[in-house]
Amino acid sequence: MDINAKVFAAFQAENKEQLEAIRSIMGKAPKSGDGVFNEALRLAHTMKAGARVCGLDGIQELAHRLETLFTHIRDSSVVADGEATVAINNSLNAIEDAMTLATEGKPVPDMTAALGAIDRLLLPQATTAPKRHSRESTRQRVLAAFQSEQQEHLAAIRSTLAKAANGVMNEEDLNEILRLAHTLKGGARISGLQPVETLSHRLESLFARVKSGALPLDSSVMEVINVTLNAIEDWMGALAANQSPADLTPAFAALAKLLEPDASTTAAEAPHAGAASSVTALATPAGQFDTVRLNAEHLDRLLRSSGQLVTESLRQDQVSRALAELSHDIDEIDREWESVREVSAAHLHRLSATPEFTRVLHYLEFVERQARIISRQARQLRALQQRSSRSVRVLGQELQENVRQARMMPAESVFGVFRKMVRDVARDENKKVEFRVTGLDVQADRMVLQALKDPVMHMLRNAISHGIETDGQRKLAGKAEVGCVSLKIEAVGNRLTILVDDDGRGLDLTRVAEVAVRKGLLTPTDVSARSQEELSALIFQPGFSTAKTITDLSGRGMGLSVAYEAVSRLQGEVRPVDKSGPGTCIVISVPLSISTHRLLLVASRGQTFAVPSSGIQRLIRIKLTDVETVEGKPLVVWENQPVPLVSLAQVLGIGGASEFAVEGTQLSVMILKSGTRRLAVAVDEFLAEREAIIKNLDTPIAGITVLGGGIVLEDGSVALVLNTGELIETFKPVYAPPTAKAGETKAEEEKVSTVLVVDDSFTARTLEKSILEVHGFNVVVAIDGSEALSKLRSEEIDLVISDIQMPRMDGLTLLQEMKKDERFARLPVILVTSMNRAEDQERGLALGADAYLVKQRFDHQSLLETIRQLL
Questions:
Q1: Which residues pair with 861 in a beta bridge?
Q2: Burial, 418: exposed, middle or buried (Cβ in 10 Å; 0-12, 13-18, 19+)?
Q3: Cis bond before residue 285 (omega within 30° of 0)
Q4: pLDDT band, residue 757 (cuts 50/70/90)
Q5: 704, 653 in Cβ contact below 8 A?
Q6: Cα–Cα distance between 323 and 385 in angstroms, integer?
Q7: Can you give the pLDDT at residue 477?
Q8: Which of 526, 532, 734, 747 is nearest to 642 (CA)?
Q9: How far apart are CA 560 and CA 460, in angstroms?
């Protein structure tokens, strides 16, 4: 994500908080002359600054006018009566609507009406007609997305059923159609299409009975399946065309005959087709959306092409080296000829008088001239090739980055619909649930978010169905009457982390073990040998469920296996994590973008492999004598913990040997991580790092789970990409206490300057933090002077950048406090503020500021140059 996108995303999140804070103040503040309006004034001022940074002139002007109005209300020159309250609320609504349009890439609308309402309070003669604002319905987006999604699901179910031979399907295909029906049901629930949801649930029940052997997949069953699929397709088609919904009664009747007595919905109880009437109008006017629907495959092909262009540019390095060697050889020939010529000059001169040698001498002169011409051309060609190679590399990287940015979108666009889904599920389960969600403004790859939509949906539904207890159970357990389910989305580095947390009953590991033994996944002896983490991981096995009854929400064990498979395909991991309180917390960690991956190239037995850097905790070199052995199994001691050691060749079964390859006296080892598990993997050599696109593997190699794909190297060869999580799972280590400890010497890292950024504006902090981090600085942030002093006392800071107007302690007071303390008195301080009056600057510099930058003329190059001068 580039800096502009980061700043806009920061302001988007900050703006929501500012609007809610101002509304809260207006709801409890007196009519005038109260200090609480100082906070409203500050919020409007910060909003104005953030809008200015983002180039949102309309929002900036309206925020400025609100700031002025709050100043007059605080000073009692304007009364916050009904007219003023309406004007303020209309202004806040206008800003909120404008941000919605700006988020969608549309221009910010005219703010004349809202500005005029405030001007009428400040200048009685100013009048402006009010202007209505419209808001695009989120539900329309959801319905439009499901229209496309359900077509893909129906086509996939039909395609999978077509593989059946004489009514027999393999278990993998049965699991797939069961998953598709389950996902179709979930999408219909999110979209509020209850008839399709119920019909999909009946279809899922039918597939479950086929899988269990209770129903044969004969012609009569296939006919009912086709009738059901056609009914869903016709119903959705009528919805899209704004026509009367198709009659679903025949499909429900056909399903009821097969599923009795298990079917809970008969033809008479089937949802009335007219239930679509309330959503039809919302789904159809596609022209209302100023968007372009782009086939995802086209965007993926463009991304792959950009990756191939970057790979080709790397391949040009080989050409450059070959040209350099050629140029060197030609120069060697030229130098050798010069030596020969100097030694034999006298003899050649005498021979020139001999007619029979004249032609030979002319030929030698011709060769000399041509050698010089070829040498000059080789140098020119090499220079031209180097310039072209650099241009191709830069353009390829730029194209790749542009395509990556085109795929980025806020999590809210995919996960925003979960609020309603959670409410609906809680209502159906007759449970009281509070849903908390944070991080919807986080930007991630569209493909990543779409791939995680179903997994997150399944986890939220499981949290309610399996986790949150009934009112009576919670009361007996001494818990609050209302259960809590939270969804937290974070972007840390180049990883997207999603936590689904609840305060329910938690995982019943005893029940998990019982089901695992019953399904043959573990023996009773294995259960006692497994850790809690290993037992918890079993819930992601296909068909694994601890539910004793099957409902339309859960009980078939498909939800979490869907999550595990989807996350694995993204080179990520999903696992339950320990928590201090009651309930269950499941964390998903995947790459923020699948456009490119940072990979480490390693060599093992003459082959090159790629390892995602996200799965590597540390690269170390150890002496072979430092390898310890416990019960015949090698291990290394790293960070005072025993870590099993294995060679990559041994895990992959290549080379026909298990001994370690030692380079000199050192063993090259990767410390791989997956959750709390670690594995030390020895390789022959660390080769290089690469940014590359991972391509899927074709069968039969695609079935090897430890391989996550392949990348094309610059020489045209393919390096297989290892799935670190599966690699650790494949090797079953035996943990044992070490017999001795091997020390590890850490190289002293190069000193990196740390900058403290102090600003109450989240947007301004994000802008400055992004700029500084891009240029290699460590950045610590604080929201006001008080927090800044605390950070100064607890961390090693090299320079301070501070705003002036802040709550609790402003920038000038912070500067005064720093100068009083000898520990901080000599720290360089840069004031960055919107206060551009000469007297403000003089006061700041008089107090000891080393530089003063004005936000209206803010230029990051000036900031960086100032920092470099001070450091």
A1: none
A2: buried
A3: no
A4: very high
A5: no
A6: 9
A7: 87
A8: 734
A9: 11
What residues pair up with 498 in beta bridges, in sequence order?
489, 588
Portion of the chain with pLDDT greater than 70, in percent: 78
- Give the angle subtended at the CA of 489 by the CAs of 484 and 492, to the nearest 5°: 140
The single-letter DSSP state of residue 448 is H
pLDDT in tens, 162-203: 777 667 788 888 888 888 888 888 778 777 788 888 888 888
Beta partners for 643? Answer: 636
Terminal Cα distance for the chain, rounded:
28
Length of the chain: 871
Strand 718-722 with 607-612, pairing? parallel
In Å, how far are 197, 260, 273, 462 from 552, measured between CA atoms? 10, 16, 20, 12
C-alpha–C-alpha distance, residues 757 and 16, integer Å: 22
Report d(CA 12, CA 6) in Å as an integer: 10
Which of 597, 774, 761 has the alpha carbon at shortest distance from 2? 774
Cβ of 748: how many Cβ atoms within 10 Å? 6
| Residue 548 pLDDT level (bands cut at 50, 70, 90) | low
State the pLDDT confidence band at 734, using cuts at 50, 70 and 90. Answer: very low
- Token pair 């497994």 is at which residue? 530
Handedness of CA 625, 631, 636, 642 (dihedral sign): negative
The span from the CA of 132 to the CA of 140, in Å, is 20
Residues 221-237: what's their mean pLDDT? 85
Q: Does the structure show a pLDDT above 80 at 343? A: no
The pTM of this model reads: 0.44
Q: Which amino acid is at 855?
A: K
Q: Which helix (H) or strand (E) holds 613?
A: none
Cα(768)–Cα(802) distance, integer angstroms: 11
DSSP 736-791: ---SS----PPPPPPP--EEEEE-S-HHHHHHHHHHHHHTT-EEEEESSHHHHHHH
Q: For residue 688, which amino acid is it?
A: A
Instruction: Report DSSP letters for 21-48, one per residue.
Output: HHHHHHHH--SSS-THHHHHHHHHHHHH
- Considering Cα of 387, then 389, then 391, then 397, what sign does the dihedral take? negative
| Closest to 102 (Cα-Cα) out of 177, 9, 166 | 9
As a whole number, mean pLDDT of residues 702-730 equals: 74
Residue whose tokens read 């700041």: 844
Residue 489 forms beta bridges with which residues? 498
The residue behind tokens 């044969």 is 216
Instruction: Output the DSSP codes for 692-710.
Output: EPPBPPPTTGGG-TTEEEE
> Exposure of 450 by Cβ count < 10 A (0-12 exposed, 13-18 middle, 19+ buried)?
middle
The answer to whether 183 and 152 have CB atoms below 8 angstroms apart is no
In one letter, which amino acid is 152? E
pLDDT digits (tens, 9 = 90+) for 762-797: 767 777 887 787 777 889 999 888 889 988 988 889
Measuring CA to CA, which residue among 752, 762, 754, 768 is closest to residue 784? Answer: 762
3-state secondary structure of 405: helix
Give phi and psi for 843, each to the nearest 5: -65, -45
The separation between CA 640 and the C-alpha centre of its own chain, rounded to angstroms, equals: 33
Across the strands, what pairs with 134?
none
Structure tokens, 363: 């030929």
Q: Give the distance between the most distant pair of CA atoms in the chain.
A: 121
In angstroms, what CA-CA distances link 652 with 293, 727, 730?
43, 9, 10
Sign of CA dihedral 183, 189, 191, 193: positive
CA distance 779 to 800: 10
- Contact between residue 443 and residue 1 where contact means Cβ atoms under 8 Å apart: yes
Beta strands 829-833 and 799-802, pairing class: parallel
